[in-house]
Amino acid sequence: xxxxxxxxxxxxxxxxxxxxxxxxxxxxxxxxxxxxxxxxxxxxxxxxxxxxxxxxxxxxxxxxxxxxxxxxxxxxxxxxxxxxxxxxxxxxxxxxxxxxxxxxxxxxxxxxxxxxxxxxxxxxxxxxxxxxxxxxxxxxxxxxxxxxxxxxxxxxxxxxxxxxxxxxxxxxxxxxxxxxxxxxxxxxxxxxxxxxxxxxxxxxxxxxxxxxxxxxxxxxxxxxxxxxxxxxxxxxxxxxxxxxxxxxxxxxxxxxxxxxxxxxxxxxxxxxxxxxxxxxxxxxxxxxxxxxxxxxxxxxxxxxxxxxxxxxxxxxxxxxxxxxxxxxxxxxxxxxxxxxxxxxxxxxxxxxxxxxxxxxxxxxxxxxxxxxxxxxxxxxxxxxxxxxxxxxxxxxxxxxxxxxxxxxxxxxxxxxxxxxxxxxxxxxxxxxxxxx
Length: 436
Prior knowledge:
single chain; 12% strand
């Protein structure tokens, strides 16, 4: 298909001092268990917001926020019956998660999304290193700590970290400069940055992190794109992987993830080789407009070719990014994508959950939210002992799954923590502590 430029701003981060304060606040909040109330403000797709507290996003079944583009009112869909007692015997879903925020709130919101899904655990946490400066790519102090803490809590969890291959990664750098940067990387000029990142992850005791390196390299969005010089890109990838694997204690898995379709160049032209790739991923959104799911499967460099290519190379597949996009609230896409993953069993998948892609933090996709929630509601892994601060009651047969929405106001018994308007702006909402 034609090149697909997607501007998906993921970061509302700040200078190290502010970042450290945000991490401390979020860490303390997580430690209090159920006594925090945070709103699930939808991530912006364009530039940074005005520095005002974010408004909580209602559950997917509520009305569309005024800020959202108007959509036709869907025909109401009956709520699915909640699983009966004993429904935990249902098949455990594959390892899945969702991208909910790049910073500490991404961790906090995972518990809320799990509650909305009737207690189904998210086994995968997904975040992105900022690509503004090399200091970001090295894993600046404070940014990764909360994510590492979440990963260490349980042995069956996975941390997925998208790592840019270049600084100024979303600044629209021209092809000539990109070509020069790729050649510098292939020559080893940037090795020390990736060694620092590897050492940081080992220090945080998350040496088995999945590294989604240079994602969507076949497109035109990022400075780490492959198109200007595929041979230099492949050599640079190998250099980074070799450098990070040389750090003592590491157990990293490297995920080669393209965007679905041909995009600017065929992603197969960027594949660096089996010796430095552990997983073959694909970011697959419901786009472009009018493309059916069957066409997404059959198109050149599409879903089927991805599966076939990975099988031919003896590699597991993944879907680090997937979700709705150009075709609106497309329940058929949601249903078919979930079925596709059930059939082909990726190592992990993480839904991009902010507007327009998501279903929990984005109220404009109620029909797709119903499909997603119905497929995953109450699917608990009975082989894992879970300590939950506030157990979710088991729904009675014939009732609807409880609607658990992020709250914009502090819960009862929850005292607001005044961090100041600037820190609250970067956090995205106000935090509070339980005094119980």
